[in-house]
Amino acid sequence: MTAIIGRLSDVITEIAKFVLGLCVAAIVLITLAAVWWRYVINAPIAWIEQVSNILFIWITFIGAAVLYRQKLHIGVDMFIGMLKGRAQQVMFWVIELANLTFIIVLFIYSLKLSIDVLPNTYGALDITPAFFYFSAPVSCAMMMLYFIEKIVDPSKRQPDGFAGDF
User: Fold this and answer.
1) I want to staple 107 with a disulfide (CB 3.0 to 4.6 A). Which of 3, 64, 136, 140 is the partner?
2) CA 148, CA 144: separation in Å to the nearest integer?
3) DSSP calls for the chain
4) 122-145: buried (b, 16+ CB within 10 Å) or exposed (e) per residue?
5) What pLDDT, in 10s, does the model give residues 54-91?
6) What CA–CA distances, in Å, run from 92 to 22, 46, 49, 106?
7) CA 101 to each of CA 35, 58, 96, 111, 156: distance values in angstroms, whole numbers, following the listed order
8) How far apart (Å, rounded) are the C-alpha atoms in residues 65 and 99?
9) What CA–CA distance (Å, rounded) separates 117 from 121?
10) Is the pLDDT of residue 118 over 70?
C-alpha cells in the first residue's frame, strides 16, 4: 500500500511540475505576444489578461499542493522545535489535522462553487469561470493524497529539498 500511494504521489507531483512549467512558459509567451500586438501592430488582443489570470490561479493552487507534499510552505516551527520526543510528534499531527480540516472544507466548497458556475460565461473568451475555480478542488485532492502519503510513509514527514529546488 505504501509503495502504491508513494508511486501515485510521485507521478502526480511530476505531472504537476510539468504542468506548472507549461503554465509559466505560456504566461511569458502570451505576455510577449500581448506587448507585440499592442505596441508594434497596434491591435491589442482582448483575451490575454483572462488567460494569464487562469494560468496564474492554476499555478498558485497546484504549486501550493506540490509545496505541501515537500513541506516547503512557510511555517513557524520554532515552538515545535522546542518540543521533544512524543510531544513534538503529537503537535505535528495536530497541525496536520488542522491542515486537513481546512483542505477538506476548501475542497467541498470550491467544488460546489465550481459546479454552480458551470452554466455562466466569463469575459472575452466566452468560457465558464469554472476554469478558474476548478483549480482549488484539484489542488485539495492532491493535498489529501499527500496527507495519506504522510500517514503511510514516515519519510514524507520531513522537508524534501529546498524552495529553490523546484
Assistant:
1) 140
2) 6
3) -HHHHHHHHHHHHHHHHHHHHHHHHHHHHHHHHHHIIIIISS---TTHHHHHHHHHHHHHHHHHHHHHHTT-S----HHHHH--HHHHHHHHHHHHHHHHHHHHHHHHHHHHHHHHTTT--BGGGTB-THHHHTHHHHHHHHHHHHHHHHHH-GGGGS--S-GGG-
4) beeeebbbbbbbbbbbbbbebbeb
5) 999 999 999 999 999 988 877 767 778 788 889 888 98
6) 34, 48, 41, 21
7) 43, 22, 9, 15, 19
8) 12
9) 8
10) yes
Single-letter residue type at 18: F
